[in-house]
Amino acid sequence: MAAIPKNGTVAVTGAAGFIGSWVVRLLLDKGYRVRACVKDANDPVRCDFFRSMPGYLSRRLTVHSANLDDDGAFDEIFKGCHGVAHVAHVSNYNDHDYVKRVCDSLIKSVNESGTVGRVIVTSSIAAVISEVDINELKRRPTLDEDRYPDEQNPRRTPDRQGYSMGKVLAQRAFSDAAEENGEWDAITCCPADNVGPIQSPHQKNMGPWQHFVEMMLLGEYYQNGGYRPWMTVDVRDDALCHIGLLESVLIRNGERYIAWSTDTPKVEEICASIDRLLPELGHDTPEVTDNFPDRVKAREQELRDIWAGCDLRNDRIKAVTDIEFRPFDESLRDCVESLLTIGGVKPKLREGFSLPA
User: Fold this and answer.
1) Is 283 helix (H, G, I), strand (E, B) or coil?
2) I want to staple 326 with a disulfide (CB 3.0 to 4.6 A). Which of 70, 145, 234, 291 is the partner?
3) From CA 327, how far away is CA 299, in angstroms rounded?
4) Eight-class DSSP state of 88
C-alpha cells in the first residue's frame, strides 16, 4: 500500500499515554490531522493536556472516547482516516482469547472505514528478546527484527510470557487481516525502554521507565529484570519511528521494525548520571538496592555477561525512515526536568540544595 498522504488524517489509540501522546503531538507538528482516541475524553486528569497542543482550538486535533473493550468503538472514528497508530495497551495480555477479540474488533473498524491505508501496531522488544530460558540469548544473541522468542519452549505459556506472546499474537492478527483484505497494510513497531519527557502529570506512572527515574529522584531504586541493562529509546524518537513508518514508501505489509537507540545503560549508571547531567540540582544519588533472591544474586555476573554479549541492531528502521536517535543522556535529562516541572516530583537533594520557590 502507499504511504499515508501528506497532511492526511491519523487516528491514534492510547493517545493519553506516554508514547501515544508524543505520536499525537509530533503528527500535529508535521501538519497532520489527528483523532486522539482515549478511554474517556471527559477525564480532565488524562486529557486536559491536549488543550495546549497546536491544532486543538482549530480542531485539527480532536479527542474521542473509545474503549478497546467495546466492540465497534472505533467504527465512526476510523472513517475518513488515512492511517491508524494503534498504540493502546489491552488490559490483560495473559488472556489471549481476549487479546484476539480486541484485535478482531479494531480490524473490523479498519476494514469498514473504506479509507485507512496503513496501520502501525505498537508491539514491544519483549516480542524480540523475552525468553523463558535466558541462555537462548547466548545461542541467538543478534537482536534484530528477524528474532522471536523461542516459541517452542514448553514453558513459554501465558502465565509466564503473556505480554510477549500477546504482542506477537497482535502483530500476526493485523498483518494476516491486512493481507486478506488487500486494501491496507499493517506494520509493527517494537519499541524499547522509553525514556524522555512526560507531557502530563499522570504519565509519570504510565509506563515503568519514567516511574523508575521518579523513584531514583525520590531516593530509592533497585535492580530490575535479572540485571538486564535498559535498552533505551527516547519517547520522542519512538513516536517519530511510528510516524516514519506511516510515511515510508519502502515497507511492506507484515514487516516489523525495532525502535531503539542501541544504548544499554545499567541501572547504577543511570542513578549516578542524574547528578552528572544536572549537578545544579544537587540530587542525593541513592545506592541501588539489589532485591533479587540469593539464587539470582549468585548468577549476577553470568546474567550481566549474557546481556553484554547481545548485539542490538537498528539499521532497518534507519533504512526506511529518516530517524536519528537521541543519546540517552538527553533523554534522561529531559525526563528528569519534566518530572520536576510537569510531574511535580520533589526530589531528595543533598544538604544545601533546594528547589526554586
Assistant:
1) strand
2) 234
3) 30
4) P
Q: For 279-333, write each residue's pLDDT tens digit.
A: 999 999 999 999 899 999 999 999 999 999 999 999 999 999 999 999 999 999 9
> Are the C-beta atoms of 226 and 294 separated by less than 8 Å?
no
Grouping H, G, I as helix, E, B as strand and the rest as coil, residue 200 is coil
Nearest to 273 by CA among 289, 291, 260, 288: 288
In degrees rounded to 5, what are phi and psi of residue 154? -65, -15
For the chain, which ranges sit under pLDDT 50? Answer: none
- Structure confidence by residue, pLDDT tens digits, 60-76: 999 999 999 999 999 99
Q: DSSP 3-state assignment of 63?
A: strand
- DSSP labels, 2-53: PPPPTT-EEEEETTTSHHHHHHHHHHHHTT-EEEEEES-TT-HHHHGGGGGS
